[in-house]
Amino acid sequence: MKIFVCVKQVPDAKDVRLDPKTNTLAREGVESIMNPYDRHALEEAVRLKEAHGGTVTVLSMGPPQAEATLREAVSCGADEMVLASDRAFAGADTWATTYTLSMAIRKLGGADLILCGKQAIDGDTAQVGPGLAERMNMPCITYVRKVVAVADGAIRVERMMDDGYDLVEAELPALLTVVKEINEPRIPSLKGKMKAKKQQLVMLSAADIEADPDQLGLKGSPTQVVRVFAPEMRGERAMIEGTVDEQVAALAARLEAIL
Amino acid sequence: MLKIDLDACIGCGVCEANCAFGAITMKDGHPEVNEKCTLCGTCVDNCEVGALSIEREAKAGQTDLASWSGVWVFAEFRRGRIAPVALELLGAGRGLADTRGVKLAAVLLGSELGGAAAELIAHGADTVFQVDDPALAHFTDDAYGNVLADLIRAHKPEIVLAGATAIGRSVIPRVATMMGAGLTADCTQLAIREEDGALLQTRPAFGGNIMATIVCPDTRPQMATVRPLVMKPLTRDAARRGEVVNVAAPPERLRSRVKVLDSVASEGEQANITESDVVVAAGRGMDGDKGMALVKELADALGGAVGASRAAVDSGWISYHHQVGQTGKTVAPKLYIACGISGAIQHVIGMQSAETIVAINKDPHAPIFDVATYGVVGDVFEILPKLTAKMKERKGA
Fold this sequence. Notes:
With 259 residues, chain A is α/β, with parallel strands linked by helices. In chain A, 28% of the residues lie in helices and 30% in strands. Chain A has helices spanning 36-52, 67-75, 94-107, 128-135, 190-198, 244-258, and strands at 2-6, 9-11, 17-18, 25-26, 32-34, 55-61, 80-84, 113-117, 140-151, 154-161, 164-171, 174-178, 201-204, 224-229, 238-240. The chains are: A alpha/beta (259), B alpha/beta (397). β14 of chain A pairs antiparallel with β14 of chain B, so a sheet runs across the interface.
């Protein structure tokens, strides 16, 4: 089984903050990491390969620095790593991103199974997985929390819904997006780290994937950011002071007024 | 692209400091732009000497934008009922449609839809496009996506809204890709831009640390998913009149490569966190099972549900279904009591719509107090049992 895992290098979101007073960004020491949900997608791919055979290719679209994230993925069990990197890809929204990823996967001979994290923690859109499935003409199952079986050209999984879960089966090839409940990602082994060091990085440019330049990057993106700002805080901040008993009495009185 | 007028530039570095994306670096006294630039325009607004401007490339885009008209809401229907977010979207959509002077329609897909269409009309829809077919009894991306895309192609609405639910966030990206349309995920505000009627879509990014407003100027429909419990539904009015259009979908469009073998509803308590009037939520400060029991007791005394921060869920004290915040559920109860929750923005984004927020935390500098209506600095292990006892007294009285 030929498995692709799409990974994204993201800034560690908890460190990214806009100062509401100056509207400036505090980005000191913001680290680049592998999107945490993609880590679970990678782990599931490696487990499927171990159980059923095949190869795991990690694919990322991003700047040259994303190589570090791909090498980390190899140290965790991926066989091949591919970086789609070109100035022309920059500024892509999810529509242009899925175009680029789909062209890259086609260039590499297609996939039997594509795994993605449910969303990336910087954009939080959760749109690349389903959009990529449409581009690849594959069925898509989002929010997968468990792979139950892979047999006879089909994959059976549990997908989380807002009110419970569905047990579903898709024909292969298919695309899944996974939630973190699906597995506990492994720590890179020494052998994996050695392999990651030596592994050849496959680089793909816009020309390599034979992309239509009008559909790439900022130019190919239907969405346009027109404003960024810090979220407003709404609290009245009425602090209730006093001894514990006084605090409790005052709070209870206010709650009674509400309920 | 971002154009820099080097003659006008005074090298002050304000643009670098204001860039939310780290796309500008000062070099030799002038800004340099890298590939992280999204053309958001913040630097242009902040440049005091007018040295920055944005030049947008003409896009291939669609040419007949004006022929797209009307606001649509995807009315999610599951287990025999309309998802509450669909009614909220009709409330928001009504406002948008009235501003644009166009009709508001709902799209209702499912099996055995009963009186659902009438309910949608009572909540603001002028038209309901209804596809009632056993093949749509369970949600699948394939069948729902095909049918929705076919309807959009046939009727050309300018705006399509859907709930940012598991279903909406699964099928809508697929439809947007089919249509070649822009899509904004998880919006918390929607408005119409005065000068050109474009939909202004505002959403949190970077885990809620930053808000971004997005438009899709060159493509139609303009598509957005919207967080549940952010928009307000209209008051139900059974006297409202509207049209129900029954549509039959061809069998090949209803075929799905994904089969639903079983659909399991989660146990009662888990589901009702979004519907409860009172949510008592536990954070890292509750420090384990003993603290969780105190939270549960207060919730019981108030007839409320138990919520949790991500820290509490990740520590294994309570299941994910109780998680409130960016990666959990959004709640908007009458009363939200945050116990031992520091108030990271990722949590706040899931509860800031609550009418009254009470924060109890031993750290007076905890950010949770910035969103609190009432704040109590103190030890949750002392305060909660006493508060529970007081509230029980009141109940008994």
